[in-house]
């Protein structure tokens, strides 16, 4: 290994998110970016066919925001929405708002720690469409807040076309987010998603179709939402709750409880629901409730 090059981090050496949030933001961003460049150099040596791609997307850039802006610009461009325009838009937004960079770093850590299939930070940066869709959404949300709504909606449309992830630019998304697989995720205009939330594919945070105004779900910190779950209306999913795969939720779910089924019911019953000790959004434990919920046998 060349002198001064960082070693490729194993999952056990990757600092947990709870530690990452305590570190100074600039140091944390610098650490992750150094890891990404070391991984890219290693991968370029192992697979020369990717050397040019890795150089143009990562190794030629001086910072994470420049690499991410370049990659998103190339992913989301079209014949009429030029990559150079998008690159400038993303770079200006990321460079001017440190909170967006901190959120991107937290999302990279979330994927690296929570997803066994995530072999490196660079793999997430380059290939995880849930991560890329989330970062692009944050820029669209910034544009929406600045009343640049036609551009925000145009970017929203491209994100949906390219990544199959449909998040309205007005929706508020926290940090430490994992969109695992991400295909088919739909998040409505007035939805709010807290920090350290994990959402699987084909999840809908939608309206009931009958209400106007504030009409979409509010997801607390540390929530885990299983694949295919549907949460409708201005309902609150409490901090650290778990929503089972395929569930349909139409009313509030208390903090640290598990809701499963169609319509969803609380594991342990409404009066004395079973309480979760761990944070499911970080532990990614989808099935710990099954013995209490069902005598399911094959």
Please give a structural write-up.
The protein is an alpha/beta fold. Helices cover 42% and strands 11% of the residues. A hairpin with a 4-residue loop joins strand 14 (258-260) and strand 15. The model is unreliable at 1-22 (pLDDT under 50). Keywords: Acyltransferase, Amino-acid biosynthesis, Transferase. InterPro entries: Hexapep (IPR001451), Hexapep_transf_CS (IPR018357), LbH_SAT (IPR045304), Ser_AcTrfase_N (IPR010493), Ser_AcTrfase_N_sf (IPR042122), Ser_O-AcTrfase (IPR005881), Serine_acetyltransferase (IPR053376), Trimer_LpxA-like_sf (IPR011004).
List the defining traits of the structure above.
298 residues, six-stranded mixed sheet, five-stranded parallel sheet, 11% strand, globular
């Amino acid at each position: 290994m060349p002198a001064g090059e960082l070693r490729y981090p194993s999952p056990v050496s990757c600092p947990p998110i709870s530690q990452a949030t305590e570190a100074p933001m600039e140091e944390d961003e610098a650490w992750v970016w150094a890891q990404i460049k070391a991984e890219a150099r290693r991968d370029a040596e192992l697979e020369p066919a990717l050397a040019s791609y890795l150089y143009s997307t990562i190794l030629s850039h001086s910072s994470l925001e420049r690499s991410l802006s370049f990659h998103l610009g190339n992913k989301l461009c079209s014949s009429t929405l030029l990559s150079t325009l998008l690159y400038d838009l993303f770079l200006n937004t990321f460079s001017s708002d440190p909170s967006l960079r901190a959120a991107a770093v937290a999302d990279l850590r979330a994927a690296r720690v929570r997803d066994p299939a995530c072999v490196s930070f660079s793999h997430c940066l380059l290939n995880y469409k849930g991560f890329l869709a989330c970062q692009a959404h944050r820029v669209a949300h910034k544009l929406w807040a600045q009343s640049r709504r036609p551009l925000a909606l145009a970017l929203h449309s491209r994100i949906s076309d390219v990544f199959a992830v449909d998040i309205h630019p007005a929706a508020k998304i926290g940090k430490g987010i994992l969109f695992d697989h991400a295909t088919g995720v739909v998040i409505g205009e007035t939805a709010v998603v807290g920090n350290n939330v994990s959402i699987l594919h084909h999840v809908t945070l939608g309206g009931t179709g009958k209400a106007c105004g504030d009409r979409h779900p509010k997801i607390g910190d540390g929530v885990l939402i299983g694949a295919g779950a549907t949460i409708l209306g201005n309902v609150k999913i409490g901090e650290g709750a778990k929503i089972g795969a395929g569930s349909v939720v139409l009313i509030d779910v208390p903090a640290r409880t598990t809701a499963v089924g169609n319509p969803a019911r609380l594991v342990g019953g409404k009066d004395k629901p079973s309480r979760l000790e761990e944070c499911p959004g970080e532990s990614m434990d989808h099935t710990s409730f099954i013995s209490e919920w069902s005598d399911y046998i094959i």
